[in-house]
Design brief:
Layout (H helix, E strand, L loop, with lengths): L32 E5 L2 E4 L4 E4 L2 H4 L8 H13 L11 H14 L5 E5 L2 H18 L7 E6 L7 H6 L3 H7 L8 E3 L12 H19 L4 E6 L15 H13 L2 E5 L24 E4 L11 E5 L1 H9 L13 H16 L2 H22 L3 E7 L2 E6 L15 H11 L2 E2 L1 E2 L9 E5 L7 H24 L6
Parallel strand pairs: 3-13, 5-6, 5-7, 7-8, 8-9
Antiparallel strand pairs: 1-2, 2-3, 4-10, 9-10, 11-12, 12-15, 14-15
Helix pairs in contact: 2-10, 3-10, 7-8, 11-13, 12-13
The structure holds pyridoxal-5'-phosphate.
Length: 465
């Protein structure tokens, strides 16, 4: 018999470190999490943090939700795992009904997986199989935006617009065409955001023609940007324009709503803000199970699912797809969100957060832009608000500001994307349960953190204004 007291000894002190030493460069040791409740988290030393980004924009219900914990226990006692290749489960059917009912007509079926990257993979494979079954086997290219992020698996990474990922992992991936993202803050000289969005939509049309429309399977985009685009939504006309372009060329329009879906932007889907841009397929993850279990989903129309079913079914699956425990948890999460009207709360608290962020921006030397929808918000930091000049890249400003905030008990989400080629920003996206008083607490702590970081930058002579 193995002596368990000796197992893992190598993982302590000498061999341990941040995330078991997989990530060490420049990384201070992380506090050890002890417990969490609502929008607050406590480390082992008793320090309290406000989870103002829902982790990586996942914990939509906050922590320790009683309904979810109870659903988890009940389903686990009944049956935690039953492979969908053998058994249907009530939990799967109930969650599919609930989610597709909220997603609305044309998104009638749901396929549940274990996260956002898996949802991207499943969605693209579903689209490809659909094309093959319909006699359009020449269609395989998936066009996406630059910058963008659709997941970390090699297929999803090939769709993501991030030069750093392409540099390292490029040789392992099939290159996929990219078109410029409709950024709103840094737009080319002489254009405004609306004019630039038109240029970006035209670029999609041109790229489809250049590739040969008969080779293009789909266009995938985040309707409201995640980390890669710092919560930027495109100007309204963009959505109808790309919808029309895709329709004209027989290209499927996929919305990656891994971050923006499940109520975060003040509608169940961010797509609901632009009915004229209705997508063919939608990806969900993160908020759909709010961090209580790994989960993602592909939403698809009846017609596409029936076409594949008639041809023998969707040729794809993972061990944990549609597993009963995760589905029951997802069902409790979505039910809680509906019963507490948290989608409306996201819209209301989002407006309050935006107003508070804009007030901080007005006083701050480094906040150049505030953007987002509902409780999916970000702010961009600069060295000079007039010229939009970036802070020197080696300062790793987003990480340092997140650190300064964390020292004050505020958790915000920072990661430089595309080597900072499009700017530096931080996400601020608290759980959908956040109250007015908590928004104010977040804003007060952020204001203090920004002041402290500005003082640090000023002392270092890094501010040009
Ligand atoms: C828009 C978007 N798509 C896909 C993913 C990948 O999801 P996951 O990390 O669950 O694999 C993410 C994760 O941040 C995301 O923000």
């Amino acid at each position: 018999m193995v002596d368990v007291s000796t197992v893992g000894a190598r993982g302590s002190a000498a061999h341990g470190g941040p995330i078991q030493v997989f990530f060490t460069k420049g990384m201070a040791p992380r506090p050890v999490i002890e417990r969490a409740s609502g929008i607050y988290m406590w480390d082992r030393e008793g320090r309290r943090y406000i989870d103002a980004s829902s982790g990586p924009v996942a914990s939509n219900l906050g922590h320790g939700n009683a309904r979810v914990l109870e659903a988890m226990r009940r389903q686990a006692e009944r049956v935690a795992f039953a492979f969908p290749g053998v058994f249907e489960s009530e939990a799967n059917r109930a969650l599919a009904d609930l989610v597709t009912g909220l997603a609305g007509p044309g998104l009638d079926r749901a396929f549940f997986v274990s996260g956002g990257s898996e949802a991207t993979e499943a969605c693209v494979k579903f689209a490809r199989q659909y094309a093959v079954v319909r006699g359009e086997a020449s269609r395989w290219k998936v066009i996406s935006l630059n910058p963008s992020y659709h997941g970390a698996t090699l297929g999803a990474l090939a769709l993501s617009g991030d030069c750093q990922a392409a540099e390292i992992f490029g040789p392992l991936m099939t290159p996929m065409p990219k078109v410029p993202a409709p950024l709103t803050y840094r737009v080319p000289e002489g254009q405004d955001a609306v004019a630039y969005a038109k240029v970006c939509a035209d670029a999609l049309d041109e790229e489809i023609r250049r590739q040969g429309p008969e080779t293009v399977l789909a266009f995938i985009m985040e309707p409201v940007g995640g980390l890669a685009r710092g919560a930027a939504a495109a100007p309204d006309p963009y959505y109808g324009a790309v919808r029309e372009i895709c329709r004209r060329h027989g290209v499927l329009l996929i919305y990656d709503e891994v971050m923006s879906g499940a109520g975060r932007t003040g509608k169940f889907l961010a797509a609901d803000h632009w009915p004229e841009g209705r997508p063919d397929l939608v990806l969900l993850a993160k908020g759909i199970a709010a961090g209580y279990t790994p989960m993602g989903a592909v939403l698809a129309p009846d017609s596409m699912v029936e076409t594949l079913a008639a041809a023998g079914g969707f040729n794809h699956g993972h061990t944990y797809f549609a597993n009963p425990l995760s589905c029951a948890i997802g069902h409790a999460v979505v039910t809680e969100m509906l019963e507490r009207d948290l989608i409306s709360n996201a819209a209301r608290m989002g407006a309050r957060l935006r107003a508070r962020l804009e007030a901080i921006q007005a006083r701050s030397a480094i906040i150049g832009d505030v953007r987002g929808k509902g409780l999916l918000m970000a702010f961009e930091i600069v060295a000079d608000k007039a010229t939009k000049a970036m802070l020197p890249l080696p300062l790793m400003a987003p990480y340092r500001l997140a650190e300064v905030a964390m020292e004050r008990g505020l958790l915000i989400y920072a990661r430089r994307t595309s080597k900072g080629a499009f700017g530096d920003w931080l996400m601020i996206a608290p759980p959908l349960i956040t109250t007015e008083a908590e928004i104010d607490e977040i804003a007060d702590l952020l204001s203090k953190s920004v002041n402290a970081y500005e003082a640090e930058l000023s002392e270092a002579g890094a501010l040009t204004a």
